[in-house]
Amino acid sequence: MRVYEAIVPREADGMRLDGYIALSMPLLPARTVRDAFARRDVKMDGRRAPADAPVVPGARVRLYTGYEAALPVVYEDDRVLLINKPAGISCDADGRGGMTVLSLLTDRAAGEYAPRLCHRLDHPTCGLLLLCKDDESEQTLLDAFRERRMEKNYQCLVRGEMRPPADTKEAYLIKDAEAAKVRIVTHQTPGALPIATRYETLSFDGELSRLRVTLLTGRTHQIRAHMAFLSHPILGDDKYGDRGLNRRKKARSLYLCAAELTLYAGGPLAYLDGKTFSVEPPF
Which of 58, 82, 122, 276 lies in the 20 to 30 Å Cα band around 16? Predict the structure, then answer.
């Protein structure tokens, strides 16, 4: 029997317990959660609780199940671990108070090593995420990502037809940390950082384009915000996108995937240099 635990954040005050579990434990299938409630194997602050119970900030939620939530492993050796991160799970602790990539992989390591994040993907973005297992590998990978020696390519579905079908676009990005959002401007202003985004159209179905996108700079929400600024928002993006299109297409998740990663780290990880890993986007 496995136990999955979450601490209710202030933002979830008053949510139904089943809704909060769906938010904080996204890798548990809906049927697994329903079965746990049916068996009365869900507790809040040590007491069995029904699905419609309102959650309270600070409460400890525990769900008991035989189901094991696992992250898909693409590659692993003694130094690194590459996973295919599902959409809807955060890399590390956030305001949802539940499972994260780091917490799940720490449990998986069972004390044999401490997994460390070398870069991050946004909560709604899926795809390749690289972690490491020791201090030397961590510093090597942090340096490689900071110096932009790694080659990362994304795929996404966006509104409309790109013209031209392939290009590199430059602009400036201003981050609003308080609003957890960014905005794009065409000229340098105080606090604005330069960005460059390269795209290539892979297909167009008359309404949506599938793009291969390469970040030449790596800023917060860069692809999402830049594509929206270009009038081609990503399908499923309710923060920067076209909510009407999302509803019409029943797009309940972000159609953005880190689909390809080529490693150039050097040092103790030189044996991986030039090796390319890829996953198929789930859309």
Answer: 122
- Cα–Cα distance for residue pair 22/17, rounded to 1 Å: 9
- The DSSP bridge partners found for residue 152 are 261
CA atoms within 13 A on the CB side of 14: 1
Exactly one of 13, 41, 94, 122 is catalytic; name it: 122
Q: Which amino acid is at 132?
A: C
DSSP class of 16: B
Each residue of 236-273: b (16+ CB within 10 Å) or e? bbebbbbeebbeebebebbbbbbbbbbbbbeeebeebe
- H/E stretch holding 227: helix 222-229
User: Among this protein's residues, is 122 annotated catalytic?
Assistant: yes
Q: How far apart are CA 189 and CA 173, in angstroms?
A: 9
CA dihedral 199, 200, 203, 207 (to 10 degrees): 40
Tell me how far apart the alpha carbons of residues 21 and 4 are, in angstroms, rounded to a whole number.
Answer: 10
The H or E element that residue 104 is part of is helix 101-109
pLDDT of residue 179: 85
Q: Distance between CA 135 and CA 121 in Å, rounded?
A: 21
Cα–Cα distance, 8 to 52 (Å, whole number): 15
Q: What is the pLDDT of residue 194?
A: 97
Cα 17–chain centre separation: 24
Q: Output the pTM of the full model.
A: 0.92
**Which regions in the chain score pLDDT beneath 50?**
none
Cβ-contact 27, 116 below 8 angstroms: no
Q: What is the pLDDT of residue 242?
A: 97
